[in-house]
Structure formats: structure tokens, C-alpha cells
Design goal:
The complex is a heterodimer of chains A (112) and B (115). With 112 residues, chain A is mostly beta strands. Helix content of chain A is 0%, strand content 53%. Chain B has 115 residues and is mainly β. Classes of the chains: A mainly beta (112), B mainly beta (115).
């Protein structure tokens, strides 16, 4: 019940295309869903996060879509660029627990 | 603002040897986390500190792992003795307690290779 399932494991997208990464969870106590971006040799960096009181959050080319009834959320990267090539992790947390449960990651490659 | 600092960045040791990792969190962040990230996996929490107190160490293999944060700032994670399966990236993160969702900021990690 503590798991966060992430798919796909890897993704190849043409420059300018849309990258979509999906995550699903079981624990209904989760109420904070961040996405982290990790480049090789670097630590994960917060990209965008959503709370379940909204169904969508957009920051620049990055959008999180959240479906509370399905317990699913996804990251959309519009106009994907080669510089977006990285590993993306979804995570989930419950208020006050301080504990992030991370997905297994998606390695994105954007072709020039 | 300086980020989370970790050292060393890389460490290669023989099995059964001891190893230690150091972390300096972002100034003002009272909560500190140690994570282990295995190849191709997401980070997994090992231990969380609030100031100098370890408040969640349920995932820390206590037979060989230890950690300390004596003055509530820097922290050290130790493995003694190391095993082959300990090869991973050890990440330190910190957060500010006043943020209700405790956004975590990660350091670059220490990549440990046990031979």
C-alpha cells in the first residue's frame, strides 16, 4: 500500500514532442505528489508538485494531471527538448509524515 | 543560497571495510534525511533527523549502519563493515520544518562501490 508505481521505465521522444509519465498509488492518505528530475551524477531536484485539491497544475512546459478517484497522476512535458533528457521520479507523501515514497523512475531521452 | 553539500562524491572500498559519508544541509533546514538509491531505482529513506534527534530510523539496517547529527547541523552516515550489496548512491536531503509539505532538497550524493 506504500508503493508508488511508475511507468514507463524508459521513454524516447522526438524534439518538440510530448512526454508523458504516469504514476499510481494505493494509499489514500497521500496528499502531496512531487515530481523530481535527476541528471546523471546529480541529486534529484524538485520540478513541480501538486496537492489533491486541484486536478491540474502547470508550470511552463510541465503539467501535472491528477485523478483522485483513480489514484493516478501524470507528468506531461510539452515541446520536449534535448535538455529535458533525464530521469524523472514521481513521489507521494502524506501531510506531517515527512516521508516521500518514490516511484522507480523513468529515463527520458529527447532526440534532437 | 548554497545547496546541500555532500562528501566524498565517490568512494570505492573493499568489502568488510568501514566507510563514512558527510552531509551539510541547507542553512536553516532543521530536518535532514539520508536516502539510499540503488541503480535504476528511486531513493529510499534510511533515516530522518529533526534537529539532532533521529525521529525515523525504521529503515536503517542497524547491525551495520549508524548515523549521527550531533549539533543538529552536519550529519555523518557510517557503514561498518560494508557488504557488496551496499553499493549504491547515498543521498542527503534537507527541509525546513515550517513548510507544511516539507519540500526536500537533495545533495549530489555519494556513489559507493564495494568490491
Amino acid at each position: 500500500q506504500q508503493q508508488v508505481k511508475q511507468s514507463p521505465q524508459s521513454l524516447i521522444v522526438q524534439k518538440g514532442g510530448i512526454s508523458i509519465i504516469n504514476c499510481a498509488y494505493e494509499n489514500t492518505a497521500f496528499d502531496y505528489f512531487p515530481w523530481y528530475q535527476q541528471f546523471p551524477g546529480k541529486g534529484p531536484a524538485l520540478l513541480i508538485a501538486i496537492r489533491p485539491d486541484v486536478s491540474e497544475k502547470k508550470e511552463g512546459r510541465f503539467t501535472i494531471s491528477f485523478n483522485k478517484s483513480a489514484k493516478q497522476f501524470s507528468l506531461h512535458i510539452m515541446d520536449s527538448q534535448p535538455g529535458d533528457s533525464a530521469t524523472y521520479f514521481c513521489a507521494a507523501s502524506a501531510l506531517g509524515t515527512y516521508k516521500y515514497i518514490f516511484g522507480t523512475g523513468t529515463r527520458l531521452k529527447v532526440l534532437a | 543560497e548554497a545547496g546541500v553539500v555532500q562528501s566524498p562524491r565517490y568512494k570505492i572500498i573493499e568489502k568488510k571495510q568501514p566507510v563514512a559519508f558527510w552531509c551539510n544541509p541547507i542553512s536553516g533546514h532543521n530536518t535532514l534525511y539520508w536516502y539510499r538509491q540503488n541503480l535504476g531505482q528511486g531513493p529510499e529513506l534510511l533515516i530522518r533527523y529533526e534537529n539532532e534527534e533521529a525521529v525515523d530510523d525504521s529503515q536503517l539496517p542497524k547491525d551495520r549502519f549508524s548515523a549521527e547529527r550531533l549539533k543538529g547541523v552536519d550529519s555523518t552516515l557510517k557503514i561498518q563493515p560494508a557488504e557488496l550489496g551496499d553499493s549504491a548512491v547515498y543521498l542527503c536531503a534537507s527541509s525546513f520544518d515550517g513548510d507544511s509539505y516539507n519540500e526536500q532538497f537533495f545533495g549530489p550524493g555519494t556513489r559507493l562501490t564495494v568490491l
